[in-house]
């Protein structure tokens, strides 16, 4: 694992954080769980969302769930070392971004009127599971008024504050499928989800 300079004290990037073989397994899992079976009348009853998001809570693959559980703890330790705060994994999902998908600039700790589920998010972490696609770069506002653009690289981890200091988004995926593992971390142990 190698720390990469981002030009920001609050945006952290580590190349090689997650083993490429595990990344490949996550890509396969994402594709297997986001292909909708023919005749599926009610997507709400499926263990994944229509938006190609597969929540860690629904994973049944024991070994992979165990490996990613350990990885979440490692990422939490990296955040603790970087920001000198103790954090706990709150929520993790695996997302398949098909061509054309993007995300507008936003923050992850919610907006007025959102429930407590969002407001307990203090740090956001994204791991790129693949890089065999074009587009789909993450852009993150930095403390200098500009943006850090995180180009995808298999196994790379990027983390940053979930609040308005580091609003962020995803540029449109142009070709191929982008697969990311996202985890939000909280300082509030009551919201720890093992």
**Number of helical elements:** 3
E-strand count: 13
Roughly what fraction of the amino acids lie in strands?
25-35%
Mean pLDDT: 89
Strand pairing plus helix content: what structural class?
A: alpha+beta
> How is the biggest beta sheet arranged?
7 strands, antiparallel
In percent, how helical is the residue content? 10-25%
Q: What is the element string, with H for helices and E for strands? A: EEHEHEEHEEEEEEEE
Strand order of the largest sheet: 1-2-10-6-13-4-3
Radius of gyration: 16 Å
Q: What low-confidence regions span 5 or more consecutive residues with pLDDT below 50? A: 37-49
Shape: globular
What is shown here, in short?
The protein has 194 residues and is α+β, with helices and mostly antiparallel strands. The chain is built from three helices and 13 strands, in the order ββαβαββαββββββββ. It has helices spanning 20-34, 62-83, 116-119; strands at residues 2-4, 12-15, 53-55, 88-97, 103-106, 123-128, 134-135, 138-141, 147-150, 157-161, 168-170, 173-175, 178-186.
